[in-house]
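[#protein-structures] MJ: dropping Trophoblast glycoprotein here for a structure pass
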Amino acid sequence: SFPRGPLRSGMTRLLLLLVLAVSCRCCPDKCLCSLETVKCQNQDLVEMPPSLPANTKSLFVTGNKIAQISDSSFPTRLENLSEMYLSGNEMEYVHAGAFKNLPNLVRLDLSNNSFQNFSESAFPNDSKLQFLNLSRSVNNYTTLHFFVHANLSNLTTLDLSNNDLLLLPDGMFNGLPGLATLNLRNSSLIKFQSVDKNGALPALSDLDLRDNNLTDLPNATMAGFDLRLDLRVQLAGNPWHCNCYISDLLAWLKDSTQVVDKIELTCADPEAVRHRPLLQVQQSQLTCTGDMQRVLKTSYVFLGLVLALIGVMFLLVLFLNRKGIKRWMYNIRDACRDHMEGYHYRYEINSDPRLANLSINSDV
Ligand SMILES: *[C@@H]1O[C@H](CO)[C@@H](O)[C@H](O)[C@H]1NC(C)=O
Ligand SMILES: *[C@@H]1O[C@H](CO)[C@@H](O)[C@H](O)[C@H]1NC(C)=O
Ligand SMILES: *[C@@H]1O[C@H](CO)[C@@H](O)[C@H](O)[C@H]1NC(C)=O
Ligand SMILES: *[C@@H]1O[C@H](CO)[C@@H](O)[C@H](O)[C@H]1NC(C)=O
Ligand SMILES: *[C@@H]1O[C@H](CO)[C@@H](O)[C@H](O)[C@H]1NC(C)=O
Ligand SMILES: *[C@@H]1O[C@H](CO)[C@@H](O)[C@H](O)[C@H]1NC(C)=O
Ligand SMILES: *[C@@H]1O[C@H](CO)[C@@H](O)[C@H](O)[C@H]1NC(C)=O
Ligand SMILES: *[C@@H]1O[C@H](CO)[C@@H](O)[C@H](O)[C@H]1NC(C)=O
Ligand SMILES: *[C@@H]1O[C@H](CO)[C@@H](O)[C@H](O)[C@H]1NC(C)=O
Ligand SMILES: *[C@@H]1O[C@H](CO)[C@@H](O)[C@H](O)[C@H]1NC(C)=O
Ligand SMILES: *[C@@H]1O[C@H](CO)[C@@H](O)[C@H](O)[C@H]1NC(C)=O
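AK: finished. structure tokens for Trophoblast glycoprotein:
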């Protein structure tokens, strides 16, 4: 009769294994697989292909309509997946645990999307990620808050170019000790303050800040640059305000060898030096005459000084003339005394009832 018991369950297990092996080797619908590369491009996919070959090394899912990725987007562990390209997907959300089954992910291209929120737990704690591309995919710097708590200690290259950021979140670089290349070109930055003396970005070697809205650089930023000896910085294409406040930057630029495009920096303001190369402007031309705040500040200081001077002179006059003042006070005292005695005398006379009539008569 038909085999039973252990033999039958063994056959079932074998069949199951076979099915599993086949399903893991097969290429997902709408994808092309060759060797260890899987490409599912421009297919209007709305979610990640459900089962990827277990040996996948490179994955291209570009130009689709995948709005979000979460912990169910990669349900099986892909031990060998090291690079993944997801650009051009109109992607808005990356949820917690999204990349937890991709332990060896090294290169991730998320460019040309439109992220709203990015979970700080998207990457595993021991992520090996080295390259992250977020170019043209972030329109609000609050989206970048995930960097503050994410653990990406192996990240060396971060592309944040062509975004509309204005600012960067405080502490954004604290968890990125290995970052060497940072591209912030054309990201509408009005301020760059994140390279500080507290040791953030110790490995930074290439910083692109071209085509932003920077008008000046704070002293602390320049001091931070000075600490990184082999750093090269690009700063062209920013609207530098060549007034008195920029004189620290100008002095630093003249000495620094870090700003590789320093001869290309030009003034956007004020009118007198517009379009002039910053390095050719003299320190004496960096004035703030049109600047109401500074004028107001200096006039308050001046007023204070004048008042102090008047006070000092008044005290000096009092001191030098102390004898005269003493004499004058004695004179006044004597005059008062004479006067008061007169009153006193008349009062006594007036208050004597016996002389009341006499006094009234004498007054008349
Ligand atoms: C991953 O790659 C290694 C070496 O290339 C290979 O030996 C191993 O079988 C691969 N793993 C899978 C699940 O394909
Ligand atoms: C961005 O992605 C869209 C598709 O979502 C594509 O049409 C466009 O060409 C891409 N832009 C760039 C600059 O790659
Ligand atoms: C990021 O992606 C854009 C295309 O979307 C590409 O031009 C750029 O070179 C990429 N950046 C890096 C560092 O690979
Ligand atoms: C983004 O996600 C985090 C948790 O993942 C949540 O706390 C936060 O409120 C979200 N922010 C927005 C603007 O949706
Ligand atoms: C990372 O580790 C912390 C504790 O060290 C834990 O609370 C957190 O959940 C971990 N995050 C991930 C994504 O595993
Ligand atoms: C950025 O996102 C935050 C939270 O979602 C929101 O409060 C803020 O208004 C947004 N800023 C801009 C400029 O869109
Ligand atoms: C990052 O790792 C540290 C310890 O290595 C842990 O305390 C922290 O919670 C982790 N952060 C996240 C967001 O998992
Ligand atoms: C990744 O970072 C760990 C420490 O967090 C380090 O031991 C390891 O060498 C790094 N790997 C690479 C490839 O940089
Ligand atoms: C600069 O960034 C904006 C998005 O903030 C983008 O629309 C524009 O095409 C970018 N400019 C260049 C020259 O890439
Ligand atoms: C940034 O500069 C561009 C032109 O250089 C200007 O159109 C834009 O309004 C500026 N943005 C801010 C926030 O100042
Ligand atoms: C900036 O630093 C220079 C020299 O290091 C110093 O002379 C100057 O007063 C500083 N400016 C400000 C605004 O702190």
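MJ: nice. The first helix runs from residue 5 to 25.
AK: one more thing. The chain has two domains: 22-289, 321-363.
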